[in-house]
Every structure is written in structure tokens, then in C-alpha cells.
Amino acid sequence: MSLPPEKASELKQIIHNHLIKMNIHGKIRDVLAETVREDLDPGRSSLSEEDILRALQRRGIVDDVMKDLHFSKVNYGKSFPELGLQNIPNKNNSRRYLYLQVLGGKAFLEHLQEPEPLPGQVCSTFTLYLHFRNQRFRSKPVPCACEPDLQEGFLLEIHREGLGDGSKMADATTMLSICDPVHLVLIKRDTSSETTLVSSYFLDWRTVLSSPSGKTSIAVELHGVGSECKVAAGVLNMSLELYPPPSEILSPDIITTQRSLERQKTAEKERLFLVYAKQWWREFLEIRQENQSKLVKIFAQDENGVNRPVCSYVRVLRAGRLLESPRQAARFVSLLGLEKAPVVGGGGGGKQEQWCSLLAFLCRNKGDCEDHATLLCSLLLGFGLDAYVCVGTKPKGLAHTWVMTRGTDSTITFWESLTAHRYLHQAVDPDAPPLAPQPRPSYPYRTVGCVFNHKAFLANCQPSDAVELCAFDFHNQSQWKVMSEEAVGSVCSPGSTTSLPPLPPLCGPSLEPSAASNQLELEMRYLVVEHRKDLGLATVWDDHLSYVLSSALAAYELERCTGTSCGNEEFQDAVRRAVPDGHTFKGFPIHFLHRNARRAFATCLRSPFCDEIVCCRGDRVRLAVRVRVFAYPESACAVWVMFACKYRSVL
């Protein structure tokens, strides 16, 4: 991977500072003298570079360097573990920065009995994610503990947003008016790589503006999420430092007054919207008696238990160069895992109400159908489509959300955010003659109660809420009751209230697809060999046949992205050429959302088709396996595995 010159020099400077801090030159001199004294053969006059490196490794010098030097993948900002602000290279002296240091955690009582991990032992870890004004950061993972060793520094740029002011340094008054918080998300990853959202916290950093030195220390009490949002999860010790220090120091009273005014303004807007929503709801119920049973959702609770209008969960989100088309965006969203919010005790069989802020959803890499639908709708809006989130039910009355787009020719398309499948909607005419041909629905949706996006909220007031009977003419007020766009915008448009979480940008893929594919394929080969050895079978690989399988896996992923199949003819022709006359070929492709080889292999063996290939017996049996990992933004990946065998037919 190549780096731009400025990044390369920055990286060199960080490593140089770290080596000086460790007194690495002195250690190398000591090791060199000891090696010359003990290891140099009488017949040799000099030591080679390899000899010196082996000596350094043998004495643990290389391990010490690598153990303390960690670089997190940061896409939109700079992370500088264990470096003071004065040592951070390449600061732009014309910009104002907030240096946020995490100085460790305490009181994570859930991990009070957690044993100290042994060296090299795989254990559960904490990772802290940050977002501030379009900049995203991630700490290095640390072992879960009652007092986790989270030691990290983050350099956040505080830029002005006025036209032509982007290059000017923000003064104290300008910084006071910046109400964007630092969004902190703490994620726990267990030994099987399953992620759990521990806490989501919005930090108001402006207390540092009243510090005479431009530096202050704080203790942030994190709370749990969902049903545990009132329970303390732990405490993070932090320090905040402005660089360069502002010339003007604000009094604490000014900062308190500014916060109070912002809260009052937000509370008044939310109160007025609630009054309007109640009146709008009463009018909706008076239209038809059946409207009382329709699934119309105006508010939803986020991970912190805060009720927010559902329209605030959708924003116009542009993915830059990370996603090339709406269908690729749908594929990306479908690769994020599905997990319903846990219910403590599991009583009542009901579903815990929890919609997630976008950052929490992306960092956890999984969420409920509402999280998938709002993200997909936001991305489709970014691609210029007229997109809406639909709230309704699936067969058996299960609540569900999906996405709908309206074409300029009034074509209605449903997008299933969990699978990336698309369905064309054609309404059934209930007044048509009994023998008249009617469209047969292919989508898995039964009813729709309301639709919404970032600007509009509409409730279905047609005689029936059955999807197949619904018309989606939003200008027809007898079919859809529309909420005032001005009322929705007063609490849902960006910057309208200080209670809205800021919209984070997407991060690029965090893995190298070729290396990940090779590694997983080697692990799969090892598991196949061991499994066949347990059955008393030898394993002979056909590398050419394995390579031929690549085109099939590429075609499968392309079909998932675009909905069109291609390349099948070439694959079939290549297989015919690779399999001699009188031989039989069998293949089994399968798709995963993770890269855990043992889990994937166990899943494959549950299929009788795959088990038949892996355990194949016969004459001249040759096995093949091919793995392709396709990388997407936010650590999402599509993993395709194909097992195949060829053998001589003796019957």
C-alpha cells in the first residue's frame, strides 16, 4: 500500500520519536557488543545484517518496539497513541485543534471478575470510536477489564463553516457557537468476533474554553444502551487541550448560558412539534375507524432511550468514491449483520424498541431492520433517488421496515435492505372483474402503515393498508395524510436542534481483499485435510481447478450487486476443459458475512451437498477450494467459498 509523501513523512516522524523515547540506539549498541563478544565465530571478521536482526529478536528488542507502537486505521483524522500534543507532527499552524486524550477507564463493574489475560491469549476487547464534524477515529483494541487500559490521543480539527472562512482559525467566540458534540461509541468484541454496543455518549467539549491554560481534565460517565440506558457502564478519564491556546478565555458562566439557551431553543422546537403531531394524529384517526389499527410510527427510541421523530434517522448521505451505484449501496447495507435489540429476561415475547444512531450502527456492524432501512434510504437519497422508509408488516403480522423509491414515471420499487432484493410494485385493482388478470405480488410485505424520509412523513389513510392494494400517489390527500414539511424540518433538518446526532461519513474498507482471500483459503484447505484425515482419506488438490472457480465467485458477487448474471458460459467451458472425459465434477458455492474459517467450515458441512464433496471417495479424486473476499466500506465484507471435486466414474 503506497502513502502520499506527507503521510509517509508523518509516519516516519512518529516512528522516529518513538524509537528515541525507547533509547533504541543504546539498546542496539549493547546487543551489538554482546553479540560480537559471544556469537562471532573466530573465522569471521564481521556480522551480517541478518545476524544482528536475529540477535535483536532473540533478546526481545523488536517485540518491545512493536508492542508499544500501535497505529489505528484512521480515515478522517489523526490518532496519536501515547504522544503528547507537542510531539504530534505536521500540525497546521493556521488551524485550531482539539486534542482529546483518553487516559484510561475505571468502574466497568461488569468486568470486575475478569481474569488478567495471559500473554498471547485471545480475550474480549474494548474499542472506542469517535466522530466530530466529519472526522472519524478509532482507538486500538484493549482487553476488557474493570479498569481498561484505554490510552489514546485524537487530534480533532475545529474548522469554521462560513463561506470563505474554512482557512481561518476559529476564535473563542466561534468555538462557543459550535454545538456539535464529540460522539463517543464504545464497542465490545468477544473472542468469537461478535460485537456488542456498550455505550453511546455525546460529549460537549466546550468546557475547555474556560480553562486559563486551554487544557482541562474531565471524567466521563458512560451509560448502557437500550433497557440499560439509565445504568452506568463505566467511567473514562479524559483531557481536552486546545492548540494553539486561544488568546481569549471565556468565563464558565458564558458557556453555561450558551448551553442553556441551546437547550431551551431545542426544547421549544420539540414541544411545538409534539403539539402539532398530537393534533395531526387526532385528525388521522377521525378519517377512518380502521386507521386506529394501522402501523403509523411518528417517534422511535434511540440507543440512549431518547424519543426522536423517525424522520431524524434519515439524512442525505453521499458515499464519495466508496460506493458507485444505488444497487451497490443496497448490497453494502445487506452485508451488515441483523441483530434485534436484546430483551432482558425475554419476557412477553415482544421486541425491544431500539433504533440506533448511524455511528453506533456502523461501529457495531450490525443492527435491526430499522437501522438497515434508514441507512439504505439515506444512501439512495444521496444518489438522487426519491426514497422513503416504509413501516408495515410481513406475513404473520411481524413488524418490518423496508425502503421504497418512486421513479419519475411513477414506477414504485421496493428495496429489501436485509437482502438487497428489489421488487416492482403493481397495485391490484379490487374493483376489476373476477376473471380479469391481476398482478401477482412477489414481495414479502403484507401491510404498510406509513412512509417517511428526511423531509416528509405520510400516513396511509386508504380503506385497506394491504400493500398489494395500495396506491403510492402521495399527492392524493384522500390516500395519504401528509405531515407539514415545515413542521418536520423544524426538528429533523440538519442543525435544527442540538439534540440531533451529527451525520458521520462512511469509512473505506479496512482489509486487503487479496490477502484476506489467500489467508482464508489456506485455513479452509487445512480444515479439509484434517477432516478427511479423520475419515482415513488422503487429500490431493487440483490447483488449476481451484483457480478456475474464481470466475464463478466473481460472477456470483456481481449478480448480487447488479441483479444480472454474466460469465456463466466461460465458467462452464473452463470446467469442461479441466475435467477429463469419464470424470464427474461437483461444485458447492456458499456465501458468508464473516471470515471465521472454522465457523464457515462447520456451516458448510451441515449441507449434504458440501459434505458429499469434502468426504468424496472414489478413483482419482481431486479436490479444489476457492475463497474470494469482497471488501466494502465499514469493515463489511462478502465472503464466497466454493468447494469442488472431480473423480473418475467407475459405475
Automatic annotation (TrEMBL):
It comes from the Eukaryota. GO terms for biological process: regulation of centriole replication. Residues 10-69 form the CEP76 N-terminal domain. The gene is CEP76. The keyword Signal does not apply. Its main location: cytoplasm. SUPFAM superfamilies: Cysteine proteinases. Gene3D superfamilies: 3.10.620.30. Residues 513-648 form the Centrosomal protein of 76 kDa C-terminal domain. Pfam families: CEP76-C2, CEP76_C, CEP76_N, CEPT76_peptidase. It comes from Salmo trutta. Residues 91-247 form the CEP76 C2 domain. InterPro entries: CEP76, CEP76-C2, CEP76_C, CEP76_N, CEPT76/DRC7_peptidase-like_dom, Papain-like_cys_pep_sf. Keywords: Cytoplasm, Cytoskeleton. Centrosomal protein involved in regulation of centriole duplication. Required to limit centriole duplication to once per cell cycle by preventing centriole reduplication. GO terms for cellular component: centriole. Residues 353-483 form the CEP76/DRC7 peptidase-like domain. Belongs to the CEP76 family. Signal peptide: none annotated. The keyword Nucleotidyltransferase does not apply. It is found in: Cytoplasm, Cytoskeleton, Microtubule organizing center, Centrosome, Centriole. This is Centrosomal protein of 76 kDa.
